[in-house]
Amino acid sequence: MPATVIVGGFFGDEGKGKIIAYLALKDKPSIAVRGGVGPNAGHTFTINDRRHKVRMLPSAVAYPSCRLLIGAGVLVDVDVLLEELKEFDAYSRVKVDNQTGIIEDRHRREDKSSVHSSMIGTTGSGSGPANADRANRTLRLAKDVDTLKPYLDDVSYSINRAIRSGEHVLVEGTQGTFLSLYHGTYPYVTSKDVTASAICSDVGLGPKSVDDVIVVFKSYVTRVGSGNLEGELSREEAARRGWLEVATVTGRERRAAPFNYDLAARAVMLNSATQIALTKLDILFPECKHAKSYSDLSREAREFITGIEDRLNLKVTLIGTGEDTYDIIDRRDQ
Ligand code: IMP
Ligand code: MG
């Protein structure tokens, strides 16, 4: 399976970072490429009790031999990127497409101060205003920025060549299906489409070059910012169930609701998903924490999984059972 795309199935924060870090360490892809909007997304993974957060680099940074690329459709915040290059000492393996868009101070300022942004509850990262400039064709691109010169590449060419020669490429999506500008809960959405086709377009990959699309769902639904969340629990109830989370980028509290089968079915359809990854099963079923094999799961947990598989008509191949990257059940070859 040379090209695998990973996308979020709900409103972002499904745990894509952990799934991608695991896939990178396990499958050893030669290249991971990040699509999606930009630094509004924060992906988290934990290895040996150390929590890592990335807003620009692919989460496959967890696997040291992987080249890390950023697609042309993504927005780069140069300061955030340079910080992450330093933090992960990743200078020699990161490349940014020549045509990647650049977020400037004025985009961040506008995103933080405009009434419209606060109505939507944006992350304040400047992504929306930068994508507006891009649509107006006034946005600066990576090739115009001196500090990025050592990292420039023709990313779409690099990944297509790698796939042609049989190398394994991981394509990392960000945000979640229902934050899509086209298919989400407009206007409470992000500034681009973020379904699998859009993620492929971001990195320059045609639809026939993709072998697998893994849609990631959390065992419950969370959402930050405004917009409808069906079945939303009160803050107290979310806290009681252990579902109250804090956002990676903004530090805001996430709103929470039970697993939504209708949304999940629609996400499977919109992304033409071939597999499901389900994260945080241990939050719903604490007795499953750190489980590494399906037979270690309780009957209730297994019923939850088979319920999802029956209703979505798709196999749950990866199951997250704890925070660590290796707290996972991998049923891909079962
Ligand atoms: P923006 O993408 O910063 O313009 O924010 C638009 C909406 O998308 C807001 O509700 C944000 O909270 C949400 N959003 C954007 N990126 C992410 C993400 O990576 N995870 C969760 N929510 C996100
Ligand atoms: Mg996140």
Write structural notes for this entry.
The protein has 334 residues and is α/β, with parallel strands linked by helices. It is 30% helix and 20% strand. It has eleven helices and 16 strands. The strands form four sheets. The chain has a ten-stranded mixed sheet with strand order 9-7-5-2-10-1-11-14-15-16, with helices on both faces. A two-stranded antiparallel sheet has the order 3-4. Helix 3 crosses helix 5 (127-135). The longest helix is centred in the C-terminal third of the chain and has 14 residues, at 299-312. The chain starts with a strand and ends with a strand. Bound molecules: inosinic acid and magnesium ion. Residues 11-13, 37, 40-41, 120-123, 125, 127-128, 174-175, 179, 188, 190-191, 224-225 line the site of inosinic acid.
Element string (H = helix, E = strand)? EHEEEEEHEEHHHEHEHEEHEHEHHEE
Compute the number of strand runs. 16
Rounded to an integer in angstroms, the radius of gyration calculated over CA atoms is: 19 Å
Estimate the strand proportion.
15-25%
Largest sheet: 10 strands, mixed
- Secondary-structure class: alpha/beta
Count of DSSP H/I helices? 11
